[in-house]
Amino acid sequence: MNSVKIEKINDNKIKITLSNSELEERNLDFQSLRYNTPEAQTLFLDMMKQAEYEHGFKTANCQLFIEAASVNNGQFIVTVTKLQERSLPPVPQKKKN
Question: Taking the model in full, what pTM does it have?
């Protein structure tokens, strides 16, 4: 995965840059990333292992917010943010009758 670049933004956020060729090598496209196919999940797990190895970005037992965007130059940007307990949106409660 040498065309994947991982940049640590802070302790809770990383930015991953993928080339179109990286996706093609894995028979993926942007739609595969958006719809969370099994192949996209495998790629994501590989990227998370690389992020932990290179930057100490551990995601075990964390809720993650993942954003994927296509960039004009044929690259894809995936931003992964570890959510803190206090930043989770409240779960709506059903009203009791």
Answer: 0.76
